[in-house]
Amino acid sequence: MKLQEIQNQVLELPTSDRWQLVQVLLDSLKREANPKPKRGNLSRLRGIAKISTATAESNAQADYVTYLTEKYQ
Q1: 14 vs 17, 20, 21, 45, 56, CA distance in Å?
Q2: Looking at residues 18-34, what average pLDDT do you find?
Q3: Mean pLDDT, rounded, for 37-61
Q4: What are the residues whose beta carbons fall under 8 Å from the beta carbon of 21, sequence distance 6 or more?
Q5: DSSP assignment, residue 10?
Q6: CB burial class (10 A; 0-12, 13-18, 19+) of residue 60?
Q7: Out of 19-23, 51-55, 59-63, 69-73, which region has the weakest mean confidence (pLDDT)?
Q8: CB 60 within 8 A of CB 68
Q9: Cβ–Cβ under 8 Å, residues 21 and 10
Q10: What is the C-alpha to C-alpha distance for residues 18 and 24, in angstroms, rounded to an integer?
Q11: Which H, E and C letters describe 40-71, residue by residue?
Q12: What pTM was estimated for this model as a whole?
């Protein structure tokens, strides 16, 4: 069936059926335009931004010392 034949048949449908067809077509285009990301790709990035505990603790301690020093000067 050619596209022109489909268009001619669609134009013969009642308005409500044409609106339903439009919705179905839009939904299918949205699915194709925005495919779901593969879960495997994101799982490989787990922990990439994690700060080591030693670094975090020493930074927190240094920040606290600086805060107290500035507060009580």
Answers
A1: 5, 10, 11, 51, 66
A2: 91
A3: 69
A4: 10, 13
A5: H
A6: exposed
A7: 51-55
A8: no
A9: yes
A10: 10
A11: HHHHCCCCCCCCCHHHHHHHHHHHHHHHHHHH
A12: 0.45
Residues in contact with 18: Cβ distance below 8 Å, sequence separation at least 6, in sequence order:
10, 11
Residue 47, by phi and psi: left (phi above 0), alpha (psi -120 to 50) or beta? left
Residue type at 5 in one-letter notation: E
- Whose tokens are 């034949």? That residue is 5
Token pair recorded at residue 62: 């240094």
Return the structure tokens found at 11. Answer: 């134009």
Quote the tokens at residue 21.
Answer: 């067809």
Both structure tokens of 45: 């990035």
Q: Rounded to a whole number, what is the distance in angstroms from the first to the last CA of the chain?
A: 85
